What does this fold into?
Amino acid sequence: MGNNRPGETRAAAERLGGVFQSRSLGMTLFRYVVRHTLRPSLLAFAALTAALFARDLLGSSNLLINQGLAPSLVAKILVFQLIPLASQTAPFALAIGLFVGLGRLSGSLELTAVETCGVAPRRLLGPVLFAGCLGAMVSFALSFYGVPWAARGLSAEIDRVATQNPTITIQPGVTLDFGGWKLEAREASADGRSLRGVLLFIPSVGDTIFAERGRVETQGEGAVATSLLHLEAGAVLRRAGRGVERVEFETLETQLPRPAAGAHREIANPLREKPWAVLAAIADDPATPALDRHRAGLEQHRRIAAPFAAVAFGLLAVPLFLHLGRPQGAGGAMLGLLLILAYYGLVQFGEGLVYGGRLAAWLGAWVPNGLCAAAAGLAYVIHARPPRTAVNRSGRRAYVGGTTRLRIRRLALDRYVARTYAKLTATAFAVLFSGYLLTDVLERLDWFERYGATVPEVLHFYSARAPLLASRMVPMSFLAGAALTVSQLALRGELIAIRACGIAAARGLAPILVVAAFSVPGAFVLGDWIVPRTNARADEIKVSEIKDGAQNQRNEVWYRAADKLFRAEALNAVLGWAEGLSVYEIGANGLPETIIDAHRATRVGDSGVWALEDAIEYRLSTRGMTEQPAPTRVDLGDDDATVTDTMHLGAAELATLIGEAEADGFDATRFRVDYHLRLANPWACLVLPGALVFLALAVRSLLQSPALVMLAAIGLGVLHILLTDAAAAVGYGAAVPAAVGGWGVVAFFAFASLALASRNFD
It folds into this structure.
């Protein structure tokens, strides 16, 4: 490589400050390499953490605007969520940053200059391993001290807020559990206090209370706070022998029980909250079940082994980099990504052996680090591949009849910029999606183990969940790709060359916007067609395959599907039987019109149709009750479909839901906001790269440092998420039209981009 570009090699040596002739060669080179590997690692850490933290930011504006929580409390909750995420992304970022930094040193011929001065490439191990140790120290502090503290704080704050303000979790169509009481409302205000179409199941009553309107009031503060539920224009069902009476009421007031601790957290790892000493005591207690001891031991050693993944990546970085031909740019980032995937594949393998009783907990936690160290030692023994030599491809010419025919490429600049942007966007997506996927898997490991999920079940679940994770990373990937493209063109001096040819810089970067614009239909198809269907499938797999593997029979099942309410004293979805089944058909006024009581029901085949045994149907009205023959079969629907989850619905289905709700006299504001958000979100793939490109061109100082461009991209991404969340919250509260709540942020970024673009074309 150095023989092809001797002038550049000489310049690279001069950039090192002439240190190759000084006695302080080792220390100067050491600091130089550390600085140039830590810098991309910090950028990767910021980008990964910001992108993955986006999911935790969603809903924070609703807590501030509609639920009235104090900003300090919301900020505290976000910090508690950020610390565990940062502890997981730190090793990811270091692995990617090490290879990107080494590739940048190789691409600028500085490594060639080092070799020319007689320094062996393997001496890079020292500074790279030092960078890994720094990353391990930071990750260790977060994992060993920060994560348990944050987990305890988050649990306490969520339980305290949910206890003092239970309306924080009330949403239309969502069934909530208050100490065994079941509450659902067809319509709920933005703050969750005003309800319509209310269903309330009280175990002591033994049946459901129906009401047209409801209101929740909180009395007192702190531990003595109580929540009163006021119901209006409703009816209470009362069993009388084999009959049913509907007793109507004008007003009814009852006190809601306190929700159980942790009831508002679907996925919780209680071991994460425990100190090291408590985990050690659980792991060594012979009276504790073996599986619980394995879990405690893994959590105990994982707090140390996981941070030291950064050291393992440092050991492997240099030999892999040298053996694989010194990849540069996107190739370096992909190599770091593959290393991360391989490492966490070993993590899964080690934990599986521990849970299977084949390995001790400490050995299973440290297996990935040990194998990485062994692989690094083996790689140092084997000779590395020589660096790839540059090839002058432009010198190839075709001769026809003794003349040289030069092929002129049309739109060469546009094709080059578009190709660079597409490649870097794909790389950014691979990195962000893989980091998101790994983080999601790590968070659910204990949940999978709790329900005894097998590897095929986990793979089946993530085959359906992957499109959702991908859809959340697509806009950020296009934004990161634009930042990387602008940085690369500026770093290589190609933007200067573009302007030197009389082409405006904005015109030269226009292919970025063209590629981004073509991605909008694909993003819409992914978010509106694929994700709703795969989300529904993932929830079905979670319920039918994973959860039912551990808890087949449930007592006091209560759920609603469309205009029917189902209640069963006991239900076994796997074996397909139900006892004490009642099916309520709800009328337009929210009150029951017919009830079907069956002593027992059995599922017919694999369908949702169940055969009824000893069934009676009652028709209710203000004039009394009439008994009539009951059907022999009924469709029970999906007992996990208690939530009208808009993430399971496409735009067309949302429009249908809006029409049905408004036809029944209910407010569909929340659904309308979600509908417009569904249409607007794909355009973020265009407006975010556009805003970044024109911002970088308007503030030319950004082009002087790739780090500044990446930080600007991170800032724009976080700002977009916060504004989108805030606009949706304001829309839910009906303070602005639903269309503004959905499209306002996209319009803001579009107008900002146009304003910045006008400055560049003046």
User: Anything to note?
Assistant: Residues 1-6, 13-25, 390-408, 639-643 have pLDDT under 50 and may be disordered.
